[in-house]
Amino acid sequence: MSAKLLLLEDDPAIARTVAYALERDGLTVTHSLLVHDARQQLQSARFDLLVLDVGLPDGSGLDLLRDVRNTAPTAALPVLMLSAHGEEIDRVLGLELGADDYLTKPFSPRELAARVKALLRRAGHGNGNGHPAAPAATAAALFHDDETGQRISLRGQALPLTRREYRLLSHLLRGAGRIHSRDALLAAAWGDDSESTDRTVDTHIKTLRAKLRELDPAREYISTHRGMGYCLDLQ
Ligand code: CA
């Protein structure tokens, strides 16, 4: 089964280049020129990845991204954002809204194809070439999150977590395979407690990793993405 990708891009030249590069790699590409059309596509079919531009004739790709994250069937859909050169604000906002990766225009088709494959692999989609993954348990499947009791177990063993660590790990699990910015993690685990800083997140991730390692020394579950945040890796 080949991976299905939805491309939202209004520049026909860029769209053609992107589609060509990805189809050559065995992916099936559906192309939308408008936010409105992409929204309909997402409602009517299942996709493995969304590549979206920010500036579109009928709105912003960021609005679509927000809706994608807030809608159950697409909440975990991997998203790669194409941001215009110099639009730092779009990139930051996009990552905060839950984009998994971004490329700044102009980019090479080869770079794009590599990023797309990495995202598909991270989402458990085989080797990124459209071949299904071996039926190994993904990391997320090894955890059990008892949301009522606020307890998480790994491989059947309860993790001794503080309240903050529970909220952090629970948030990472729900968005497994995605990079979460420190701000997003702060909001998830600390709410509007203004005493907390990025450093607070780093400290808690450190203790969380130590506790995970106690139960499973062979594997590192949480990866650091410099300048972007943290991710619970699926493989
Ligand atoms: Ca555009």
Structural notes for this entry:
- The protein is α/β, with parallel strands linked by helices and 235 residues long.
- 42% of the residues lie in helices and 20% in strands.
- It is globular.
- The protein is built from 9 helices and 13 strands.
- The chain folds into 2 domains: 4-122, Rossmann fold, CATH 3.40.50; 139-232, Orthogonal Bundle (Arc Repressor Mutant, subunit A), CATH 1.10.10.10.
- A hairpin with a 2-residue loop joins β4 (55-56) and β5.
- The protein has a 5-stranded parallel sheet with strand order 2-1-3-6-7, sandwiched between helices. Strands 8-9-10 form a 3-stranded antiparallel sheet.
- α7 (163-174) packs across α8 (182-190) and α8 packs across α9 (198-215).
- It binds calcium ion.
- Calcium ion (CA) binds at residues 10-11, 53, 55-56.
Keywords, separated by commas or semicolons:
235 residues, Rossmann fold, Arc Repressor Mutant, subunit A, 2 domains, 5-stranded parallel sheet, binds calcium ion
Give a concise summary:
The chain has 235 residues and is of the alpha/beta class. The chain has helices at 12-24, 35-44, 61-70, 88-96, 109-122, 139-142, 163-174, 182-190, 198-215, and strands spanning 4-8, 28-32, 49-53, 55-56, 59-60, 79-83, 101-104, 143-146, 151-154, 157-158, 179-180, 222-225, 229-232.
